Amino acid sequence: MRSAILKTALCAALAGVLLTPPAQATPLPDTFSLPNGFQPEGIEIGPGPFAYFGSRATGSIYRADLRTGKGKIISNGPGTPSLGLKSDDRGRLFVAGGNAGNARVVDLRTGAVLKSYPLATGASFVNDVVLTRDAAWITDSTNPVLYKLPLRHGKLPGQAVTLSLTGALQYADGINVNGIAATPDGKGLLLIQSNTGKLFRADPRTGVTTEVNLGGELLTNGDGLLLNGRKLYVVQNRLNAVAVLHLSHDGTSGRVTGRLTDERFDIPTTVAAFGKRLYLPNARFSTPPTPDTPYDVVSIKR
Q1: Which keywords annotate this record (predicted)?
Q2: Which pLDDT tens digit goes with each residue over 208-223?
Q3: Domain boundaries, the chain
Q4: Is the pLDDT at 6 greater than 50, yes or no?
Q5: Pair 271, 281: CB distance under 8 Å
Q6: What is the pLDDT of residue 263?
Q7: Strand pairing class (231-236; 241-247)
Q8: pLDDT at 9 exceeding the cut of 60
Q9: Across the strands, what pairs with 43?
Q10: Which of 222, 232, 193 is nearest to 210 (CA)?
Q11: Quick check: helix, strand or coil at residue 9?
């Protein structure tokens, strides 16, 4: 009798579960705020549904939960910029230090600086970073070089290596090499030159550069890069647009297949992906910064 009663109760409970419609997943916010006066530049997403932002003003690192848009400062800055950001699966964030001429590695769990690297003496603008299988590569928009942090078995090196850039890429006045990404085959590095709108491929062994053949198309004001397979997203900051390119496997040629725009863009600088969406921080370069200036992040469909 007891067995029959339990069986009846179980069936009733199961029927209730089957008849109850599944709860709808809460949509992720497509816009969320950063702290007033933060002056964002770089963005990195992951591990997990967390986005990290660097401040041009103080160098602080802010972490936001993409499920809620809420966040907090996890690492207080040194008072100099934090620009390009990339994280690895060891919970480390690699940070380009702008006109401080350095880079540092931050522990995402504690916010502590694990290692700091002086990269340049004199004028410099250490701008962006990409992680490859065995190194972190960092650009300098003032000097025609790349900085390499070799990562043998994931171990942080004692010092950086400087690789001179030669070949087709010629530095001029203004912001030169800005964003950086790997080529689809992983054998080269892609560099966007902001002041000319040209895209280059660099050999990571020699530093020799060749211009990527885009059929005459220019990527004016090119900034952050994001590679997804053979698709390359190029943020064109002051044009408030993201160019979408289809690249050859070796990254020597490509074509622009479209541009993404949004009325919420206010000079976005770079881009990261989560799920089916792209996230871009609005740097608001044309707005004079104050401690009370609002800043935000917008997301768009890929």
Answers
A1: Signal
A2: 999 999 999 999 999 9
A3: 32-301
A4: no
A5: no
A6: 97
A7: antiparallel
A8: no
A9: 53
A10: 193
A11: helix
Following DSSP, what letter does each residue of 202-246 receive, concatenated? E-TTT-EEEE-B-TT---TTEEEEEEETTEEEEEEGGGTEEEEEE
Strands 61-65 and 50-55: antiparallel
Q: Are 259 and 219 in contact (CB under 8 A)?
A: no
Q: How many CA atoms lie within 13 A of 99 on its CB side?
A: 7
Whole-Å CA distances, 2 to 8, 269, 301: 10, 67, 55
Radius of gyration of the chain (CA): 22
What confidence tens digit (pLDDT) does each residue in 217-267 have?
Answer: 999 999 999 999 999 999 999 999 999 999 999 999 999 999 999 999 999
Residue 302: pLDDT band (50, 70, 90) is confident
Three-state secondary-structure class, residue 140: strand
pLDDT band at 134 (very low <50, low <70, confident <90, very high): very high
Please give the Cα distance from 186 to 282 (Å, whole number): 30
Helix (H, G, I), strand (E, B) or coil at 17: helix
Q: Are 298 and 37 in contact (CB under 8 A)?
A: no
Tokens of 235: 């943020």
Residue 4 burial class via C-beta count within 10 angstroms: exposed 0-12, middle 13-18, buried 19 and up: exposed
Per the prediction, the chain carries an average pLDDT of 92
Say what the pLDDT of residue 27 is.
85
Q: Scan for tokens 């059929």, then name that residue.
A: 215
Q: How are strands ordered across the β-sheet holding 222-228?
A: 222-228, 231-236, 241-247, 254-260
How far apart are alpha carbons 281 and 298 in whole angstroms?
6
Average of pLDDT values for 81-106? 97
Q: Flag whether pLDDT at 21 surpasses 50.
A: no
CB 231 within 8 A of CB 246: yes
Tokens 């705020």 correspond to 33
Q: Look at residues 69, 58, 85, 132 and name the one whose alpha carbon lies nearest to residue 272.
A: 85
Q: 3-state DSSP call for residue 284?
A: coil
